[in-house]
Each structure stands twice: as structure tokens, then as C-alpha cells.
Amino acid sequence: MNLEHGGNIFAISRQMSWDWREVLDFSASINPLGPSPCVIDAIRRSLDRIAHYPEREPRALVEALAYKWNVQPEQILLGNGATELIHFFARTNSFERVTLVVPVFSEFHRAYPRAVCVPIDSNWPREGLAVLTQPLNPTGCLIDLEDYLLHTNHPVLIDESFLDFTGEPSIARRLNERPKLYVLRSLTKFYALPGLRVGALLGSSAAIAQLRCIREPWQVNGLAEQAALAALADTAHSERTLAYVAGERAWLTGQLAILDGVHPQASSANYLLVVLDYPASPLIRHLLERKILIRDCSSWPGIEFPNAVRVAVRKREDNERLIEAWKELP
């Protein structure tokens, strides 16, 4: 199995001798409005920090996230993005059995290469560590976790990296009731900070304290901390994002549905799984020639369709360019 992460805009541009600014990356699902304008200002004001070590774990950011997510600061462990935390958690916790309730984020397959995969519509595991994604990636569908959590006492890790786009509450509200529940959060997607790398792992105070004792220091750099604080504080930008993504998701879904042999699936996130009546590879090559990147999901575990791609919801002009290029497919 070879599942690669999207967002390879710089590597592909280098290989093709392109200016990366001319490439439309629909393979990575990032806030189409970009980071809050406050983020850029915060970084400029913080440039003198780069000559100093940041805190081992930035307390101000931990407290801001605790307030945002309605948890205790002691229940949060910061990381250099969600992916770094996935691999840290995998290498520091030994579970006899790991089950990925697919589809899940591709990095879970790399972190747990021996994991058992079960489809989302089957009986979920009642032993060992269970890994789930909310909403599902790459379908964007929300799942009902309450019944499952009610009937299992085993460890569960839930990836909520795209949850902010749905407007739904976090399952982290169950942390005090579920000592073996872990929640993965990312500031990469909704706050558009993939180049700065900020993520968080939430769990019970006792579980996070154990992980913090063996944690390498300085996982969040000084500029990333200031950027994240500014992004969290700009609630108006967050509200604009939710409204914009909902509108563009509906528009893009409608435009794709008009195309022959193209079937966009319902989604609550900022990306769409698009099922095709024809092979995905020619479409991907066709769009690549036009400097447009999309994600091939044809071999993604848990996706039952033989030919499918995932496209991000971007700005209207970008979405229009995608549709026009798609229409030119021979």
C-alpha cells in the first residue's frame, strides 16, 4: 500500500520547473480564505523572537486552546502538526492490536503498518486501540460516535483535524468521562497554517502527563505560537470561513454533478470525494498538465469505488478553473 499525503506543490513544481505560485493545489484541503490577516501581522511583530528559544511547550497557546475547546490545559499536548503527533503517539504507546476504522488519514497507515482495517459500516473494534476520523477523510461525512464510545472501554483515538469546517462540537467534551479517549486536533487546515506546523493531542490529564514526561522539547516554534494565537483570536475570520466554505462546497458540488461520468458525494468538510465512471489516472494527468493537482483515492482503504478522486473546496476563481479544465478532458 502506498498512500501519499497531498500538498506536494513545491516538489511537483520543482520537478516540472514551474513557479509554484502558478499551480492550483486541490490535493491539500486548506482554508480557501487563507490565514487570518492578523497572523501575518503577528509574525512580523514576533521576528525578534527567532533569536531566542521558545518555551518547551508554549503555555499561552495551551491555555488559549483549552479555552477554545472547553478542556483543561493539562489535557492538551502540543505538537509540530497533527502528523508529528500521530507518529509520536504510535511509537510511545504499545498496543497489542490497532484497528483503523477506514477511511482514515493516510498517515495512520504509515504509523500503524500492521493495523487491521475495518470499514466504517462494519462492527467497530471492542479491543485494542481504535482509530477513527471525524469527519471521514476523504469522504467528508460525519459519523455518530456516541453509541460506540458508550459501549467500549478500550482506547480510542479520534482525528478531528477537519472538524472545524463542519461547525460540529468536538468529542473532547467526553474526555472527563472517557479516560482512554484521545482526540487529535490540527491548526493546519481551518486556520491555514500548514507551513508553520501546529497540532494538539487531547486526552485525560493523567494520560497527557505521562506523554509529556517523555516528550521532546520545543515542538512548537516561536513564530508558529504567535501565528496560532492570532488565528484563534480572529473569530470573525473563522465565521467568514464557515460561511464561505459552505457556499463554495455547494457550488462546486453542483458544477461537478453536471459533468458526464462525475458523481460528487455529499460532504460536511472543505473537500469532496468525487466518484468517476472512468479511470482516475487520465484525469489526474490531464489536470496536472494544466497545473492543477488533485488527490487519487482509487486505492484508499475504505473507499469502495474503483475510481475516485478528492478535490479541495477553494476560492471561486480556482474552482472555476478546475471545472473548465475538467470539461476539456478528452
Radius of gyration: 20 Å
Helical stretch tally: 11
CATH-defined superfamily of the largest domain? Type I PLP-dependent aspartate aminotransferase-like (Major domain)
Q: Trace the largest sheet across and list its strands.
A: 2-8-7-6-5-3-4
- Shape designation: globular
Provide the structure class: alpha/beta
User: Helical amount among residues, as a percent range?
Assistant: 25-40%
Tell me the β content: 15-25%
Order of helices and strands: HEHHEHEHEEHEEEHHHEEHEEEH
Mean pLDDT: 94
Largest sheet: 7 strands, mixed
User: Could you say what the CATH architecture of the largest domain is?
Assistant: 3-Layer(aba) Sandwich
User: What is the name of the CATH class of the largest domain?
Assistant: Alpha Beta
Distance between the termini: 30 Å
Number of strands: 13
Instruction: Flag low-confidence runs.
Output: none
CATH topology of the largest domain: Aspartate Aminotransferase, domain 2
Descriptors for this entry?
2 domains, four-stranded antiparallel beta sheet, Aspartate Aminotransferase, domain 1, 330 residues, Aspartate Aminotransferase, domain 2, alpha/beta, 13 strands
In a few lines, what is going on in this structure?
This protein is an alpha/beta fold and 330 residues long.
